[in-house]
Design brief:
The chain is of the alpha/beta class and 364 residues long. Helices cover 34% and strands 18% of the residues.
Length: 364
C-alpha cells in the first residue's frame, strides 16, 4: 500500500519527516513524497531517500492508495486520485459539513485527523493538541516581539522596570502553554476559562485564575469550550474589560467546535487598553475572540497591536512537522496491519476520524 505525502502549498510544515517515515515504512507501507515537500521545514529530498521514493506531484497523486496532508488539497487534485483512495487530512467537517458528500462524490474515503476523539487513549494521535501547544508557546514570543516593554521585572542602575501583565483567555492546551511560557519570561499572568476543571491547572502554573460564575460546561465537548448564555458572556466581557485595562498582553484561545469563536474582547475593551499593548488572537480563523481581529493580519488600533494568527505552529515548522508526523504514525499503527488497511469500525478512534463512513453505508 502506497502512502503519499504531497508538498503543502500554503504551509511551511510537512506531514511526514524522514525519521518518522522510516517507522511508517516498517508498518509495511511504501512511502512516496513529493520533491521539495520538506524544504520549508528544513528537510531535504536526500534526507528522505532511505525511507521514501521522492517523486513528482503528478506521479504521487496517481500512485497513492492513501494521501496524507496537513491541509486538504484542491478538488481538482483529489479528482486525480484512484477510486476508493484514502485521503487523510484536517477536513474540519464540523465547520464544513459539505466535504463529506463532496469526497464521496469523487469516490474517495475521508479520514479527518481533527475528528480523532480527544481522549486519553488517543492522546498520542491528537494533532490539534500538538499544534495548539506550539501555538501557545509561539503566541507569547510573538507578543514579546511586539510589546515595547520588558516581560520580566528588571532592576538596573537606570531604575526598575515592572513585569508585564499577561491575560490569557481560554486555558486549554494552547492557553496553558501560553501561561507557562509567559511565566518563564517573568511576567505576571492571569487566566480565565469557562471550564472550572482548568482552574487547578492554571494555579499549578503559578498564574491567577479569573473566575466568572455561571459558566456552562460539557465533558463531551472534546476539550473545546461550549457555547455560553448571553448573560454569562456579558459578565465575562465585563470582567475581561476590567482586567484588560491593566494588561500589557492578552492572548485569546477560545473556540467552540463547529461555531464562530466567542467574542471576548470587544472594541470598547481595546479602546481602554494602554497604547503599546498587544493582543494575540489564536481563534482568528473562526472569527476571532477580539472584535477587531483580522485573520492573518496585524492590526493596530489606538496604539494596540492585534495579531490574528490561527497557524502559529507554521512559524516553527521543523518541530511542528515532527510532532504532527508522530501523531500520524501512532494513528497509522491502528489503521494499518502488515501493510494493509484495516478500517475497524469497532475502534472508537477510527470510527471518530473516518467521517465519510456513514455516507458510504447509506449509499450501499
Amino acid at each position: 500500500m502506497k502512502l503519499a505525502i504531497p508538498r503543502e502549498l500554503e504551509d511551511t510544515r510537512v506531514a511526514m519527516v524522514p525519521e518518522v517515515a522510516e517507522k511508517a515504512k516498517a508498518l509495511g507501507l511504501e512511502i512516496l513524497i513529493e520533491e521539495g515537500a520538506g524544504a520549508s521545514s528544513f528537510y531535504s529530498d536526500q534526507d528522505y531517500e532511505s525511507a521514501a521514493t521522492v517523486t513528482t506531484r503528478e506521479k504521487l497523486l496517481s500512485g497513492a492508495d492513501m494521501l496524507l496532508s496537513i491541509n486538504p488539497l484542491s478538488d481538482e487534485e483529489y479528482k486525480k486520485l484512484k477510486k476508493d483512495a484514502i485521503v487523510i487530512s484536517q477536513f474540519q467537517p464540523f465547520l464544513y459539513p459539505e466535504v463529506t458528500d463532496k469526497l464521496r462524490g469523487m469516490g474517495l474515503r475521508g479520514i479527518s485527523l481533527d475528528m480523532i476523539p480527544r481522549t486519553t487513549l488517543a492522546q498520542s494521535m491528537d494533532v490539534l493538541s500538538s499544534m495548539a501547544s506550539i501555538a501557545g508557546y509561539k503566541a507569547v514570543l510573538e507578543a514579546a516581539r511586539h510589546l515595547p516593554r520588558y516581560f520580566p521585572m528588571m532592576i538596573t542602575a537606570a531604575g526598575s522596570v515592572r513585569p508585564a501583565k499577561v491575560l490569557v483567555l481560554g486555558a486549554g492546551v494552547a492557553g496553558l502553554q501560553a501561561i507557562a511560557t509567559a511565566k518563564r519570561l517573568g511576567s505576571m499572568v492571569e487566566a480565565s476559562d469557562t471550564r472550572l476543571a482548568a482552574k487547578e491547572e492554571v494555579l499549578s502554573l503559578g498564574a491567577k485564575f479569573v473566575e466568572v460564575e455561571g459558566a456552562r460546561e460539557d465533558k463531551e465537548a472534546g476539550g473545546y469550550a461550549v457555547e455560553q448564555s448571553k448573560e454569562f458572556l456579558e459578565r465575562q466581557r465585563q470582567e475581561v474589560q476590567k482586567r484588560a485595562m491593566k494588561a500589557d498582553v492578552i492572548i485569546t484561545t477560545a473556540q467552540v467546535r463547529g461555531r464562530k469563536a466567542p467574542m471576548l474582547v470587544p472594541k470598547e475593551t481595546v479602546d481602554q487598553m494602554r497604547a503599546g499593548s498587544v493582543i494575540v488572537d489564536l481563534a482568528a480563523s473562526t472569527g476571532g475572540n477580539c472584535e477587531l481581529t483580522k485573520d492573518n493580519e496585524i492590526v493596530v488600533h489606538n496604539g494596540v497591536t492585534i495579531i490574528g494568527n490561527s497557524n502559529l505552529a507554521g512559524l516553527m515548522p521543523q518541530d511542528a512537522s515532527l510532532l504532527y508526523a508522530n501523531n500520524v504514525l501512532n494513528f497509522l499503527k491502528i489503521l494499518v496491519k502488515d501493510g494493509q488497511l484495516t478500517l475497524d469500525m469497532s475502534n472508537e478512534i477510527i470510527r471518530g476520524a473516518y467521517f465519510t463512513a456513514e455516507a458510504e453505508a447509506q449509499q450501499q
